[in-house]
Amino acid sequence: MTEHGGVAAGEQLYVAIDGGNSKTHVVVGSTGGRLLGFAHGPTSSPHHIGVPGTLALLDSLVRQAVAQAGLPPDTVLSRADVYLAGVDLPVEVDTLSKAIGQTGWAAEYRVDNDLFALLRAGTVAPDSVVVTCGAGINCLGRRLDSRVARFLSLGEISGDWGGGHHLAMLALWHAARGEDGRGPATALTAVVAEHFGRSTVEEVSTGLHLGELARERVNELSPVLFAVADAGDAVARSVVARQAEEVVVMVAAAARRLELLDLPHTVVLGGSVLAARHPLLHNAVIEGITALAPRADIVVLSDPPVAGAALLAMDALAPADPVAEAALREAVRTAALAGSVAATSA
């Protein structure tokens, strides 16, 4: 490839996508670790917007990133790595792979669940487990011998519990029951009512039902739950403890299926809920994992998951280069914070 925008001859270009339940990041970069284009948007999960909606949104974001990179709109990149929440089943991977393969973005593609990007962003260790607790909850494990342990992650119908959306709803649920006597008294009752500017939780529930309050606002209650728990409320603390238990159970189940519990391996904690390091949750998760897998090295993800998507593309296109990886990670961190491309040079 000829030199372009600081890209040296011989370097290949890729597009990498991380699409979560709340946001999507798209990177156009080079195998030399340069970040050339960056775009961001709302959720691209097909569970939320359907496959046609996913394709339309991603195509728009890819075009933005390609244009920002200074490339012609019809440029065919060397590779596209696409990792999305809601791509959980083999049939979903296959459907989206075929659809994205027709976009013309790149010469070769990989499409899979966003946990693969999160895992690569968190560690290069071949024996590893990643759990994400953001809007939802999911877990994935892998071994050097290529074995993978994953979960359906389809919500309650597949045995899932927790995640930010669920925790927020539980805050409202307990607040309502504490107010009307069906449940124990809890500080959540007064705090939830005050959060929505209402006198009672009954007024909050009525407002949500009648559309006076947007349903999406319920998601604001996840941090409220943790604040009330930190203040000592027994009901809120019980919910946080249950979430910690679920995170530990998922990690242990994946590690057990891969026969990693008694072996050295890395556990990556990701997603907005875990990344916030709420003391009650964080400490319980660390203690629980350590008790079951004492040789595990536990890390909290610090880089945006799209960095992992980009690194997976780079891994597939060229031999590993620690200098290029470090440059890419730094550029993505800066771009994700700023919402624009960070000028990089290697």
TrEMBL record:
SUPFAM superfamilies: Actin-like ATPase domain
Keyword Kinase attached: yes
InterPro entries the UniProt entry points to: ATPase_BadF, ATPase_NBD, Euk-type_GlcNAc_Kinase
ATPase BadF/BadG/BcrA/BcrD type domain boundaries: 17-313
A GO molecular function held by the record: kinase activity
Keywords: Kinase, Transferase
Annotated Gene3D superfamilies: 3.30.420.40
Cytoplasm as UniProt keyword: no
Origin superkingdom: Bacteria
Annotated signal peptide: none
PANTHER family per record: N-ACETYL-D-GLUCOSAMINE KINASE (PTHR43190)
Protein name according to UniProt: N-acetylglucosamine kinase
Organism in which the protein naturally occurs: Rugosimonospora africana
